[in-house]
Each structure stands twice: as structure tokens, then as C-alpha cells.
Amino acid sequence: MDNLKTGTDALFILLGAIMVLAMHAGFAFLELGTVRKKNQVNALVKILVDFAVSTLAYFFLGYTIAYGVQFFAGAETLAEKNGHELVKFFFLATFAAAIPAIISGGIAERSRFNPQLVATFVLVGFVYPFFEGIVWNNRLGVQDWLASVTGAPFHDFAGSVVVHAVGGWIALPAVLLLGARRGRYQKDGRISAHPPSNIPFLALGAWVLAVGWFGFNVMSAQTIDKISGLVAINSLMAMVGGTLAAWAAGRNDPGFSYNGPLAGLVAVCAGSDIMHPLGALVTGAVAGVLFVHLFTLAQNKWHIDDVLGVWPLHGLCGAWGGIAAGIFGSRLLGGMGGVSLVAQVAGTLMGIVVALVGGTVVYGTLKKLVGIRLDPEEEFNGADLTLHRISATPERETNW
What we know:
Layout: H1 2-34, H2 40-67, H3 75-78, H4 84-96, H5 98-106, H6 113-136, H7 142-150, H8 160-178, H9 199-218, H10 229-249, H11 254-268, H12 277-301, H13 310-328, H14 341-369, H15 376-381, H16 383-388
Pfam families: Ammonium_transp
Protein name: Ammonium transporter
Domain Ammonium transporter AmtB-like: 12-390
């Protein structure tokens, strides 16, 4: 029976890892559909290679920093207990790789390729696992301290803050250090529109992400005996709330409509295991409105050229999710309790600080040492021809 249980657990978390791995195709197609045609190939290649670099960084460094586990034993030792620790690494590596995938959308269309790979290695190897270990493995005793002060530790079941807020807030200094795409903002105050190049691909990416998110959230239980249908239903309700709110606030704009479910799912990750479904619905709806209004402000008023809006989508909606877990997870509002609003605010702010410092140091150092932006001619020609020497949609075919 023990062998059957460990085997089932390994299969359970492996299925989750595969579902979250598939989400990276969603990241790729969401970015591909949003950027201009001359940068579509770059979006596809960047997400794939970033994932590969992230896996190596997490295998050799990040997982050890977060959990104190390393894989430099014999294969026979690694395969014990049906290799559950190995597939757990696979599952959590797909989470870690979401950090550069999130950042990729913000810095699209003008960032250099190789410096971004260096940033990916450092962020996934050091910055992200530092905070991950604090929250999910009680590194440095921070969770115990919060519990002693507030009555409960910081609760982030599936990564609203650990993954999404951290990724979004790392992206913010990267976007600011890069600067806006050339021609985006005119000296006389006019804003040049850079509309999405392919709404069907944008929608496909959003759908792939939304479907995979149920592996992201539900499989965060990590063992079959802890699986919760409440997590699935709360994820569904937050997705619906985010969709309808963004559709209404965005006045039926397809870009907002398809990012709305993602905003809701980002926000519900933290408290999906303790909220009532109605609380999840409200959490998602608030996130949908938050994304629409902050994306509009950032782009049009503050001139922050965050191409996919990853700071409002992941950074702000993720932070809202961490706080929402403390509100709608309380018994007073139908939740399961065992959570402190003060601890949620403190943990969320801690994640933001780690992300901002980490992002500023990594991208600021790279900018100073090697440069992180394409030169004007390369940017004008597009990353596809500049970096990959091929375009996604050639204007004409060669006839022989």
C-alpha cells in the first residue's frame, strides 16, 4: 500500500508538472499574438530557451537554496520512493521558469537575447528561490516569526506572490531600465499605437494558460491525499470573475477580455484552498478591473512601456491575491480561517521588496556591463531578422 501511495503521488505531481509545462506554450503564444509581426519568432524562441536555462539554474542552484535538496547522488538513490522528489523538482521547476516567462512579456520587442539568458539564470538560480524558500520551506524562520507575531504564517498556496507578484515586480525595473520602444511615445505627448499583431494567437495563449492553471493550482497539493476540489472550483470562479470584470471594464476589448481570466487566476492562487467560491469570484473580479485600469494608466499616463502588461497582471494582481487570501480566507467571510491579514500584507510586501531589489540589481548590472537593449537599427528591423535571421510571415515566397 505504501508503494501504491508513493507511486500515485508521483503520478499526481507529474501530471501537474506536465500541465504547467504546457502553460509555457501559453506564455509564448500570448506574447506572439501581442507583439508586432517582426518580433513573433523571437517570442517563441525566447520562451523555450528561457525555460531550458531556468531548468538548469534551478537544478544546480535554485532547488538547493529553496529546499536544501541536491541531486548529486546515484540514480538508484534518486529513484527511491518512486522518484517523487524528482517529479516534485520537475513540478516546481515549471513554477520557477514562469519568472522569466513573465518578464519576457514586459521587455518584448527591444531586449537583447543573451543578456536576458544571463538574467534568467541569476534570477531563477538565486533571487526567486531565496523568497520561495522563505515562504514554502520556512527558511530563515520568517514564517515562524510571522506566526508568533500575527497568529498565522504567510499563506500562499499556489504562488500569487511567490511566483506571480515576484515575476511582475522583477519585470518592472527591467522595463524601466530598458525604456520604451522607439516611436511609442512622441515628444509632443502623442502615443503611437502598437496594436496586437494576432488576436487569435493571443486568445490561444490565454486559453492554454487558463487550462494549465488548474494543474498549477490543484496540483500544488503535491500529494494525492491533499487534493481539494475547493481549489478547482475557486480557480474556476476567479477565472470567470476576472473575465467578466475585464470584459466590462475594458469595453469589450479582446485584449482585456482574454487577459481578464489570467488576472483572476493570478489573484486566486494564494487563497484558493481556503476561500469560499463567492470570495474567489470577488477576488477574480477585482483583479480583472485592477488589470484594465492599471494597464491603461501605466501605458497612457505613466508611459511605462510594459508590452504585455505583466506588472499590472502579475505584479499587482498577484499582490492583490496575497492580500485577498487574508480577507476572503477568514471565517467571517466564509473562508476556512487560519490566516492573518497582517501576515498576508507583510508577506506580500516582503515579496515585492525582494523582487524590486533583485530585478534592479540584475538588470542594472547587465545594462552597465554589456547592455540589455537592441540598437536602433536592430529594433527597427525587428528581433526576428536581427537575432534569428528569419521572419514569422515572409511577405513573399521564393519562386524557382
